[in-house]
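quick one, 673 residues, struct below
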Amino acid sequence: MSFLQPFALIALPLMALPILIHLINQQRHRTIPWAAMMFLMSAKRMSRGMARLRHLLILLMRVLAVGTLIFAVSRPLSGGWLGSVGLSKPDATLILLDRSASMEMQDLQAGESKRSTALKRLTELLEQGDYGTHLMLIDSATGQMQEVDSLKALLNLPVTGASVTSANIPAMLETALAYLKANESGRTEIWICSDLKENDWDIHSGRWNAIREAFAELQGVHHFLLAYTDPPSSNLSVRAENVQRWQRGSTAELVLDVIVRRTDGHGGARQVPIAFEVNNVRSVVEVALDTLGASLQGHRIPIDGKLSSGWGSVSLPGDANPLDNRFFFVFSTPPVRKAVIVSDDAKVGEAFRRALAIPTDIRLQHRVDVIPANRVAEIDWENTALLIWQAALPRGLVAEQVMHFVNTGRVAMFFPPGPGGTGEQLFDSHWGNWHFSGSDQVSKLSWWRGDADLLAHVESGDALPLNELRTYRYRMLESLGTPLARFDDDAPLLNRVVTDRGAVYFCSTLPTAHFSSLERDGVVFYVMLQRALTEGSLALTMASQRDAGLGVLADREQWTSVAPEEDTVSLSSRGLHAGVYQDETHWVAVNRSQAEDTAKTSSVEAVDALFEGLSYRRIDVDVGDTSALASELWRIFLIAMALALILEAVLSLPGRNIRNGRQEEGLEGTSLA
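---
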């Protein structure tokens, strides 16, 4: 229990006032001898025990009446969240709001989403207390901090509205840390509103150790987590993948895959309609749902052969989450997929050329050029999707060209050069010395990432045969990148360097038989390079799919909204909401990330462990439950006081008592009633 007026509790010693009055009254009683009543003494002794008990009950009721009055004045709260860390008000209150698409899951009867429920309950709670001098908001969609004038404004701000973005809880806490350190804030309360999705919390990230240690150094910081831990409601989500436009003589068609996922997994089989819209032309296809959902592979939609580019969408009937019922896509004539291989070793260059020259689909056009390092000036940077660099890392102007190439959304893959080449550095990475296995030993992979990126499982769900890969020589790599595959001595085989756009990979061995079995076994090598080429080609197409996020439309200034028709989103918030945009011949579709549809909810034990050693409390809430987190109890205490006074008056009804030959007007004669 906590109190909105805790200083009123100073008056609690007044509960002893009825006892003090009783003792004073006992001292002023006079004894009057009365011989005629002496024969009653023996009878009186028999009832003295019951009278004393009644006296004690009367005194207790008076003490309770005074105590309950004091408690009512102090305005106690049930729940105790505001007072769980102390009675003093905070200097600042920071609200970290998860605005990811999954937070729009609704209670259909109440009409409230997780996000709106959290805002209303938190606003009501903070209104009952004092949130301090500064009320700060960090929303997951923008990741930026801003000061809020009032709690009422919190409900109507654009930055607290729905979005189709994903959250980054560690980054939000790092923003909060920077604010606390910069302002040297005193006692601070941090309220986190989230549904604990794995992709939002990234509980296995190494950033959490640093975050926890930094908060432990601060005094008076208390964390509260408003968490939605209830199982997901029955909900369907839809998305389109592998959208391609193919020309067939004078006609054309779109070929795409449609994935429908269900969150409950317990519903029976049923039919669900999927609505297709392509440039305002609509059609409907019914699919059968199983416990996991449904899929349409290679669904074909005929279009006008003169329509070289455009947009479309797939949608489902309304359900618990309106933000995952529609998915936008764009299409255009596929460009020529061009790759450039820079290598002074003709044998190595030919191995790369053979793996890249054969397209995954015969309707795609591939072009592969192999050039030595002294002819890099011939590279057509504008029309190249993938750069394979097997030479000493570039310097000077060439290094700048490579970095610009990546920053425009293309892909660069670096393979180790021959002897030497250890002095150069690029993308915070550089090559070390060669590692040679013994004559009867080979290096095998101990771990690789199979859920995403270049080494992910194939569409059937089968893993790539990386366990069969044999490596005889590899070069040590010093890099800040993220490992995608490691040898049994923890040395990396494949690293990805984080960049704002595009992708950078470092592979520590070569494909030829002298170094590894990559080329001989073929599957891993071919899939890895083809995926890199596909990723780089996305930047060359006139139509691109992008995950929602701040600045996702920053590459062009003249994006105009095409869909949805009722789009009223401000220019600064366009990248946070699903839609289609066009800039002359370029199209882009913005949607929620795939993780928003597939990510599971982290266990509360795993999330609680992230705050181990810190002042922390988790408050579990349900979707649509807008009841107050803490409610005032003063009415209950006033009712208790009234009942105590009534009971005291009933016990005092005899009014007088004659004992031991004297008239007493003590305890019963001074009723508070």
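Residues 337-537 form a domain with the Rossmann fold fold (CATH 3.40.50.880).
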